[in-house]
Amino acid sequence: MLSKSKHIKYEYSNGKDRVFLSYQRESFDFVLKLSEYLEANGIKTWYAPRNIKLAGLWPEKLHEAVENCRCLLLLYTRHADKSKHVIREVSIADDYNKPILWLKLDKSEPESKVLKYFLKLVQTVECDKEGVLFETLSNALSPDSINFSGLKDSLKLNTSSTEGLSTTQWSKGIYAFDTADEAAECAARVYFEKAKVSPERTLLLPTGRSAKRVFQAMLRLATGEYAASPFGDCYLMNDTETFGVSMNHPTSRVRAIRENLINILSAMNRAPEESRLLFFGQGDDCLDPEDAAAQNLANHPPVIHGISISPYMEIIGYDLGRHTGDIVNDGPRVVEVTDETREYIDAKQKSHSIYTVGLKTALATDILLMLAFESDKSNAIERLFKEDVDPSVPVTLLRNHENAYLITTKEIVSRAGLENHAIKNLSPTEAAKCIMNQI
């Protein structure tokens, strides 16, 4: 908002070829000085209210300006953290893949879950000496091109940005297929191949949106080359279960596994024996579900886990922004989830809690398959590969696994900017063999 002591002449602009200055009203005087300096050096800026009529349609005009701008420069303070306008502007810039530069005017860190989400991957600058800062920003935002690469040498940067990180430094492979069904078949083949060579071990089944496709692929394979005994002598366990509901409840993960996989295999005479189904959340008369799961996993260590990646960077029941480094030591336990997660998992679900096998269990498996078959997961995949490990973004903790593979589609790797790192010319059979040969 405009200070009463300032009078700014309206100047029409739709944002084209300009740097959009996103700020909260307490930073207005700084905005004026910064804009004056940049424009004196040939860099056009856009900011409200100078470039928008007070009587105009603000939401539409702000959206238009962000859509057309060269980049968005967020002038961040603790007040911006609570500004709906700032959050909306950053969100729009992300939607249009605009470069975002986060200029910190104080030492505060975002508390807003939304801002944490959007700012994790962007270049971050802390404001020290104003003169040096303005000159450096002018060089980075030059009229000819935008180049943030020199900022690190000139200013103190927040190190959360890992732009340029080689994805081959930690993942064993990114396998991208033409279709989600082909990706699911690759995952199913790895499960069945691992079952052949790892008797008496536990196979952790996925329970997210990707799980149903994997189960369908397993059923197709169970009528062909794996017909004799698809799961061999392995044990099966689900990685999550809704807490406090019966196994017959519509939101039960165990029910979904039985209906979409086990019962159909049983009708084909190819299902594992009931004693091999160590479904988490079931328990027995003597042990509660967490203790039963821990005991079963101790007796039959997990050998493979297919984790369905959430679009919100959550995994196996762990919400975004709610955890510390201790999460990596979690074994089977019950975790509380937010309304957002509950809505994403299943709007009909009454419980606010979920059983999870825990990150420690997932990270202890011989093979970790990160499953992403739906296009809305591309942003989560980009963050998984390109930003630092952060317990508040649970999906990034998968980078602690020494034998992890991403199984996905060509569309997703393209959207996530990982196209040059992906293996895209293999069939599901060939990709599964490559994964098994690297063990």
Radius of gyration, in Å, reads 25 Å
Shape-level CATH architecture of the largest domain:
3-Layer(aba) Sandwich
**Which CATH top level class of the largest domain fits?**
Alpha Beta
> Which structural class best describes the helix and strand composition?
alpha/beta
- List the strand order in the largest sheet: 6-14-13-10-7-8
- Biggest sheet character: 6 strands, parallel
Describe the structure.
This protein has 439 residues and is an alpha/beta fold. The chain has 2 domains: 19-154, Toll/interleukin-1 receptor homology (TIR) domain (Rossmann fold); 167-437, 3-Layer(aba) Sandwich (Rossmann fold). It is 34% helix and 14% strand. It has 15 helices and 14 strands. The protein has a 6-stranded parallel sheet. Helix 13 links the parallel strand 13 (367-371) and strand 14 (404-409). Helix 7 packs parallel to helix 15 (428-437) and helix 8 runs parallel beside helix 9. It is elongated, with a radius of gyration of 25 Å. The protein starts with 18 loop residues before the first strand and ends with a helix. Mean pLDDT is 83; it is low at 1-5 and 152-168.
